[in-house]
Here is the input.
Amino acid sequence: SGHAEENVAVEGSPLKQQQEQTNDYETMSKHSITEEDELRKKYLEEDMHQYPRNKIIALSVLWIGLFFITLFKDGKGVDSIVGLQCNSHWYIVLIVLQFLWLGGFAMFFGFVLLRKQNEREKVRYPYLHDDPVWDKKSLRFYGSFTFVGGIVAGLIGIGGGMVLGPLMLVMQVDPRVSSATNATMIMLISSSVAVIFVISGLVPWSYAIFYFFVCLVGALFGKSRIDNYIQRTGRASMLIFILATIIGLATIGCFVIMFTH
Here is the structure.
């Protein structure tokens, strides 16, 4: 998870509500503003950033690091850039390093989530009704589902959004936030899995290029049309309906293929 229309705060959206809350604090008398009020306003302004630079940089570093670790390994499609063979002890080290690299990022940002949650609770941060509340229990629970989503993506090549989308709706995350978060995760998961498949020599390039452009056109069409509809009507539930329809059709398709082949 940008079009210019995404910067428009529509009525009832999380961004609009946060802007209204920030404006309320700006209208307060300077003499009545306490340190707690200042911190609360600071956190609201931080959460209003649509493109937080530090998080974008962190995701880029995560992906680039994983990409280079993958290139160091030997595969059927691409040889190791350092001449490493699969029967080498260093190959096992790289496998372990991949898990440590990803797990390290997950643990670090889990710690950041808990710290931010505690800081905001101390200043009575005005959470929206559909904001998730992060604690150790929720991090373990949702982290395990995310892990399963990654396994599914690696095994059968789908984006983890098929697993994580319904999960975020169970968390009562705003559908627009869920959609944007899923799009970002799918980009990271799918691109990482694609690199692994290329190096393994398992990619039929004619199919891959064709479906890439088909998917790209569909994504651009859905993003522009559906976003316009939601901004006009305010019916974010349309995203839930579309997600449920896609999952339902995919499930039916799996059963049809299973019983007809």
User: Anything to note?
Assistant: The chain has a mean pLDDT of 76.
